[in-house]
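2024-03-11 09:14:02 DEBUG pipeline.ingest accepted 1 chain
2024-03-11 09:14:02 DEBUG pipeline.ingest length=63
2024-03-11 09:14:03 DEBUG pipeline.predict start
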Amino acid sequence: MKQAPFYVLIGAEMPAVLVETGFMTNPVERKRLQSQKYLETLAEGIVAGVEKYMKSLSRSTGG
C-alpha cells in the first residue's frame, strides 16, 4: 500500500483510496476494460480489499 499526497485525494477528510485498474493507452488493458465480466471482477476485488482492510482495523482496535 502506498501513501502519498495524490492531488485527487488532497483535502479528503476521510480515509480514501485511489484505484487504477488499467490504462486506456495500453491496447490489451483497454480491451479488458471493455468487458463487463472483467469490470465485475475488478469491482469484486476492490470490495474484497476494502472489507479486508476494514476488518483489520476492527481487530487492531478491538472492535
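2024-03-11 09:14:41 DEBUG pipeline.report The chain has two helices and no strands.
2024-03-11 09:14:41 DEBUG pipeline.predict end
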